[in-house]
Fold this protein.
Amino acid sequence: MFGMGPLELTIILVIVVVLFGARRLPEIGAGFGKAIKNFKSGISGDDEIDVTPEKDKVDQGRGPGSGAAGS
């Protein structure tokens, strides 16, 4: 993997733990995982388009006096 052996990976892991602390590593890993997931979904082009009408747009045509109560 990138020409790095177990010793190099261990040294990098120790440096990361020293820099960020053991408590923040799960947060960093979760954030990194979400970033990769969002990147992959953006690249794949499988965007889900929400076609349901919003309530504000549906109710926009109705104003005061536009119903049977206004007549």
